[in-house]
Amino acid sequence: MARVRSKGFTPGRAKNLVGVAKVVAPALIPVVAPLAARAAALLGDRYDHYRARRLGVPVGELTRYSGRGARLHARIAGFAQALEELRAEDRPYVESTESRLAQLLAAVRASERMPTSRRRAAHRAVSTDLDALEADLLRRLGV
Q1: Which of 67, 82, 78 lies closest to 123, judged by CA?
Q2: pLDDT tens-digit readout, 8-57
Q3: N or C, which end of the chain is more exposed by having fewer CB within 10 Å?
Q4: What CA–CA distance (Å, rounded) separates 38 from 56?
Q5: Is 76 exposed, middle or buried (0-12, 13-18, 19+ CB in 10 A)?
Q6: Domain ranges of the chain
Q7: Alpha-carbon dihedral sign for residues 130, 136, 141, 142
Q8: Quick check: 101 and 76 in contact, CB under 8 A?
């Protein structure tokens, strides 16, 4: 009588695979562990570069901008740096705008602890104010 061979995964095959894994795994760990560590470090580094690119900041400054308001915080910081170019030309404008930026930054930080709907509303309001301030700055710079 011909024996019909099962092509699926059987309990016997599972037992054999577990036995092979018990023998092979200890030999592979010293080889695989450093590769896995390097892969994890590379993935972490690439993710940091991705986040920095999205925020528009250098990777070294990424830790300064965290939380749900990180994008707005980075945007305010970038605006403050651009404002420095006008300090010599229009000091009153720069000082008044810096005080407004400080208020917006405080609002972003305070919104981190707000419920989601209020935080989103606060972020929209800050973003709208930043849009207006940026448009005014670009007009003053002649862009």
Answers
A1: 67
A2: 778 888 899 899 888 888 888 888 889 989 999 999 999 999 999 998 88
A3: N
A4: 27
A5: buried
A6: 16-64, 66-141
A7: positive
A8: yes
